[in-house]
Amino acid sequence: MGSSSVTAATINAVTSLGNGTDGDVISDITAVSNGQLVRLGVAATVTTRISTDSGIENVVGSDGGDYIIGSSSANSIFGGAGADYINPGLGADTITGGADADSIVLRETTASADTVVFSGATTATNGADSITGFVVANDILSFASVLTSGSLANGTTGTTITLASTGALATEGTSIAVATNKVYVAQVANVALIDTAAEVITALTDTGVMDAVDVAAGATAILVISGADSTTAAYVYGVVNDATATVGAGELVLIGTITTDSTTLTTANFAFYRLGN
Ligand SMILES: [Ca+2]
Ligand SMILES: [Ca+2]
Ligand SMILES: [Ca+2]
Q1: How far is it, in rounded angstroms, from Cα 60 to Cα 38?
Q2: 272 near 149, Cβ under 8 Å?
Q3: Ligand nearest to the CA of 56
Q4: pLDDT of residue 44 exceeding 50
Q5: Which residues contact 103 (CB under 8 A, 6 or more apart)?
Q6: I need a surface site. Which of 90, 267, 272, 274 has the fewest CB within 10 A?
Q7: Which ligand is closest to the CA of 92, given by its number?
């Protein structure tokens, strides 16, 4: 088992927990003041559960695959490297999966706004994360760690994101420019044509379903794409374009899949400033 618990009397002195053995549980820490940082060991999988009203707010995972459960308070959770499972629980949480393919489970349907922070636009920096339970009325995708002074390419006024028609997306003659540090939100007709990076690269080429979209040479940008035939998946792609405008293999990668329909996203679902960890 190897599970252990830490009491309120000792938690304030603890800066490192766990030795990589599964089952470590941080509990019974009701006397700890808010803002306490819990840093897990750097070995393999560890498990952390933040007790309700424990006072513990912040967790930094190990380099392995961690299992981190938040409390009902606002938690700031950083998974670190490894394929982490993070369920922040209730409260307005900030979750950074970090490197590798994390499973981020947002389950609440109440008004608390959870912020999911992407760590980069590449496989190495972010991995391909699964984000479930995203509520468009509340939750936020943050690209503050990915883009410098980022902004939406097609959502500059109010809260409405203006989606190009499927016809306009495919019309090469009328370019839709995606400059560096922009997030562009799009919907094509068929999700099957955009649910892998290779398919999106094809979609951006001549006669592709996103032929109009032109990512600038040298740009770092984000594409959030769904298909009209699926209301339960939006794909988040990071683009790090080289000096040639054409987006080639390896220059566009999947960094997240969100179980929501991109047509319902508003500007309020995107953040470009630094929040939490
Ligand atoms: Ca980790
Ligand atoms: Ca929480
Ligand atoms: Ca990740």
Answers
A1: 6
A2: yes
A3: 2
A4: no
A5: 83, 84, 85, 86, 129, 130, 132
A6: 274
A7: 2
Q: Which residues surround ligand 3, an ion (CB under 5 A)?
A: 97, 102, 126-127, 129
Beta bridge partners of 129: 256
Do 153 and 184 contact (CB within 8 A), yes or no?
Answer: yes
Chain center to CA of 123: 13
User: What is each CA distance from 34 to 8, 20, 76, 100, in whole angstroms?
Assistant: 13, 26, 11, 29
Q: What is the mean pLDDT of the chain?
A: 83
State what percent of residues in the chain have pLDDT above 70: 78
Ion ligand 2 — residues with CB under 5 Å? 70, 75, 88-89, 91, 93
Quick one: 96 exposed, middle or buried, by C-beta within 10 A (0-12, 13-18, 19+)?
A: buried
Q: pLDDT tier at 180 (50, 70, 90 boundaries)?
A: very high
Mean pLDDT of 162-176: 96
Structure tokens at 102: 């994390």
Ligand 3 center–CA 50 separation, angstroms = 21
189-224 per-position pLDDT tens digit = 999 999 999 999 999 999 999 999 999 999 999 999
The torsion of the CA quartet 207, 213, 215, 217, rounded to 10 degrees, works out to 50
